[in-house]
Amino acid sequence: MGIEAVLDKHRWIRHHFDILDEAVSEYIDPKNIEFFAKRQNEAHTQAWGNFESKLPEDALTVISHMFGDVLQTANSCLDYLVCELFRRHNPGEEAKPYHKFPLVASRGAFNKEIGSDALWGIPFEAVAIVESLQPYEGRTDPLPTQLLALRTLTNTHKHRKLHISVLTANPAPSDPSAIFEQDGELFARVGDLPKAMHFKAEIGPFPITEDGKVNVDSKYSAVVVLEESEFRGKLITLVAEEFCLAVTEACKRFTPFFAPHIRLSGGL
Q1: Mean residue pLDDT across the chain
Q2: What mean pLDDT is predicted for residues 73-89?
Q3: pTM, whole model, 2 decimals?
């Protein structure tokens, strides 16, 4: 395993993210979404209901697996990094099966990983960087927490093979200035969006036109969110992007040990 393996793994994170992003964009494209009215007022002038997809029922399952591919690739990139650190500083030797990038919540647990040779043969300075990325209590750097969340979801994925993603609705921003038009379509920055609705919650009321159609009128947009306890209600592509960026930033902190042979881009 050479440095090329780490670089290839890093490129594959972007590859899997692009596949996920494309699939989600297609799934929530207005042409594939319809509003299903579940109830009306007595005058039949207003309706409440949910968004539904016109695509096959297993489309969300496929998206969930794509999200799992992003997790597995991003997580394994960290282990690849440790293996290459060993090879680079121990020429002619192969990385051992016990080499890995530990992510634990306490210094005692980290020392146990050291005792298990997870970072055996790695330069002391690099080990110090690995420890700086451990999510110990009281750390102000958000990166260790993001990496631990990635590792936790990855381990969950190994056992369940699936993450639950659901179609739901996101209210439009209350501030009209947060909405902008591009190529004839309306957009809003993710940071300006209110929290997504629970996927079982009805949205509305929406006016019913004279011909019996319901006018949603851009008050809500269809989105795909996760239904994991810690990430419930978060856009699946946003979570995936945050994990990808976290791994990129973590890898960049080790560039002094590879320079000038390795250069990682700062984003997706």
Answers
A1: 86
A2: 92
A3: 0.85
The span from the CA of 51 to the CA of 78, in Å, is 38
Predicted pLDDT at 134:
97
Whole-angstrom Cα distance, residue 153 to residue 163?
Answer: 9
Q: How confident is the model at residue 1, as a pLDDT?
A: 44
Distances (CA, A) of 14 to 46, 65, 100, 248, 254: 44, 16, 22, 10, 20
Dihedral, CA atoms, 167, 194, 151, 137, nearest 10 degrees?
A: -150
How many Cβ atoms sit within 10 Å of the Cβ of residue 190?
A: 12
Its sign, for the CA torsion 174, 180, 181, 182, is negative
Helix (H, G, I), strand (E, B) or coil at 222: strand
Q: Which residues contact 225 (CB under 8 A, 6 or more apart)?
A: 165, 166, 168, 196, 199, 232, 233, 234, 235, 236
Quick one: tokens of 141?
A: 């750097």
Q: In whole angstroms, what is the distance from residue 254 CA to residue 162 CA?
A: 32
User: What are 84-88's contacts with CB under 8 Å, separation 24+?
Assistant: 84/1, 84/2, 84/3, 84/5, 84/6, 84/258, 85/122, 85/123, 85/126, 85/254, 85/257, 86/120, 86/121, 86/122, 87/1, 87/2, 88/3, 88/257, 88/258
**pLDDT at residue 96 tops 50:** yes
Mean pLDDT lowest among 126-140, 151-165, 175-189, 234-248:
175-189
